[in-house]
Structures are given as structure tokens and as C-alpha cells.
């Protein structure tokens, strides 16, 4: 029987920032679609608890704790996990942080932390796994961008710059690696109901502004990420590369 277009059986995925929120939802969804999934996070205790929970449900999952902004840890631990579970076929660069504040008061450390985690980590992780993908002439890389790859609001400059850069890095990877049958795409979430956005959800004025700015009138749920993640991880998207697909309830379509 020909495999289903969205079937990930036989594939191994690595999802960064997978101990909670969007990363955990995507990792769980990829596992449910048949993939063996390696979950990464810097929060080791939380990561191992979630891996145990998903594993107990019968899915093939492994924990790979590491700081994705640390090249030495990547160069040591990613080859180690590949030796343990097999080559990474699908990489989801999801790890992301936020440091809000007016540009003129934003500490340099905060700026560098955001750029290191949200942008440089995607470069470092992709560079690590793409060698094997090139050898196998097959691979999927999914970078989690943001509506803030396109538009923004005051006090989120570091995040906007990191996500704008990630959009262009996605296109750069796509055009360089297409000849190796490696597809690189982005998902651009809008305002999602996650820990990152708790400060907005708990601020009545900001919460009302977000809900007025999103035509769907709601925050996205992490579960909303699963379908597009499976699509971009599967053979159904083999001729799609260099795209960023926005999952935003209509935000970017509206003034
Ligand atoms: C904010 C939000 C945004 C996020 C949003 C869209 O402070 O407005 O945290 O920066 O990027 O969830 O991705």
C-alpha cells in the first residue's frame, strides 16, 4: 500500500524547545503521525517528564537536553543522539525566548540572548544535522518564525529582529540545500496561548488589543501548529521550500 502523504513512519524528528508550548505540541503531533521524536530543551527536568509522559502513551520519544545556543554542546550531543536513535530526518527549530522593553533601555545582554537563542541556534542546529541530510539526499528543516518576521509593535525589537532574520535564514537555507532534496520552510505563528504570551493574556489592555488585532478574535492554541508541522515534515511538501506559512488567525491579512 502506498504510504499516506502525511505518514512519518520511518522518520526521526528533532524538535528544539519541546518541553512546553508550541514545541511540545509539535513533537507530540509528529509522534502521533508516526515519527520517532527527539525532544530537546534546556529545561531538563521538565523535558524528561514530558518525554516519559508521551512515551507512556506508546510513542517513540527520546530526550536530548542541551542549550541550542551553545555550539560545543550541539557538536557533542547531536551526534551522540544520532548514534543512539538514528539520523535526524526532520529538524524543527522552535526554541525561542522573549526579552521585552524599549530599545533605548534594552540591555545588550538581553539583545544577544534573544538573537543567540532565536536565530543563531537555528543556524548552528541546521549546520549540524544538514551534513547527514546532504549525504542521504533527503531532509526537512522547519524554522518557527513569527508574525513578527513581518510586523511588530513597540517593546519587542530583539524578538522582531531575530524572527525577521530567521525568515531570511530560512530562505537562505532553502536556496542552498534544495539541490540536495532538502526542503526548508518556516511556520509563522501569531499570538499563541503560551507562557511567552502570559504577560499579554494577563494584561487586560494588551489582551484586548491582541484580540482586536486578530480577525479570528482569539489567541492560537499550540495544537493549531500540528497540522502544518506534519505537512512540512512529510513528503506532501517535497516541492515546497523557502516559504513561511503564517498561522495567525488572519492577523497579517488585516490592517
Ligand atoms: C508580543 C508577543 C509576540 C509574539 C507573538 C507572535 O509580545 O507581542 O509575545 O512578540 O511573537 O506570539 O509570535
Overview of this structure, please?
The protein is an alpha/beta fold and 255 residues long. It has one domain (3-246): 3-Layer(aba) Sandwich (Rossmann fold), CATH 3.40.50. It contains eight helices and seven strands; from the N terminus they run βαβαβαβαβαβαααβ. The protein has helices spanning 21-32, 44-56, 71-85, 108-136, 157-177, 198-201, 204-213, 226-233; strands spanning 12-15, 36-39, 61-63, 90-93, 139-144, 182-189, 244-247. A seven-stranded parallel β-sheet has the order 3-2-1-4-5-6-7, with helices on both faces. β1, α1 (21-32) and β2 form a beta-alpha-beta unit. It is globular and about 50 Å long. The termini are far apart. The mean pLDDT is 98. Bound molecules: D-gluconic acid. The site of D-gluconic acid (GCO) has 15 residues, from loops.
The largest pleated sheet is described as: 7 strands, parallel
Number of domains: 1
Q: Provide the CATH topology.
A: Rossmann fold
Number of helices: 8
| The CATH homologous superfamily | NAD(P)-binding Rossmann-like Domain
Number of strand segments: 7
Overall shape: globular
Mean pLDDT: 98
Give the C-alpha Rg.
17 Å
Bound molecules: D-gluconic acid
Distance between the termini: 47 Å
CATH class: Alpha Beta
The CATH architecture category equals 3-Layer(aba) Sandwich
Amino acid at each position: 500500500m502506498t504510504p499516506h502523504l502525511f505518514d512519518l513512519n520511518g522518520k526521526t524528528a528533532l524538535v528544539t524547545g519541546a518541553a512546553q508550548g508550541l514545541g511540545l505540541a509539535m513533537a507530540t503531533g509528529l509522534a502521533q503521525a508516526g515519527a520517532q521524536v527527539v525532544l530537546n530543551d534546556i529545561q531538563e527536568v521538565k523535558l524528561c517528564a514530558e518525554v516519559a509522559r508521551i512515551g507512556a502513551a506508546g510513542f517513540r520519544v527520546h530526550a536530548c537536553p542541551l542549550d541550542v545556543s551553545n555550539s560545543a554542546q550541539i557538536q557533542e550531543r547531536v551526534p551522540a543522539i544520532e548514534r543512539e536513535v538514528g539520523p535526524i530526518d526532520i529538524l524543527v527549530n522552535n526554541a525561542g525566548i522573549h526579552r521585552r522593553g524599549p530599545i533605548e533601555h534594552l540591555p545588550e545582554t538581553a539583545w544577544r540572548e534573544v538573537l543567540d537563542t532565536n536565530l543563531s541556534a537555528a543556524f548552528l542546529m541546521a549546520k549540524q544535522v544538514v551534513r547527514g541530510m546532504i549525504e542521504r539526499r533527503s531532509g526537512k528543516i522547519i524554522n518557527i518564525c513569527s508574525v513578527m518576521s513581518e510586523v511588530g509593535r513597540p517593546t519587542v525589537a530583539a524578538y522582531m529582529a531575530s524572527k525577521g532574520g530567521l525568515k531570511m535564514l530560512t530562505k537562505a537555507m532553502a536556496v542552498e540545500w534544495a539541490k540536495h532534496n532538502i526542503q526548508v520552510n518556516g511556520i509563522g505563528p501569531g499570538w499563541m496561548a503560551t507562557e511567552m504570551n502570559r504577560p499579554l493574556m494577563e494584561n487586560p489592555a494588551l489582551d484586548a488589543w491582541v484580540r482586536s488585532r486578530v480577525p479570528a478574535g482569539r489567541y492560537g492554541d499550540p495544537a493549531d501548529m500540528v497540522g502544518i508541522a506534519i505537512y512540512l515534515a512529510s513528503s506532501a511538501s517535497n516541492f515546497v521550500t523557502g516559504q513561511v506559512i503564517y498561522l495567525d488567525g488572519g492577523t497579517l491579512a488585516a490592517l
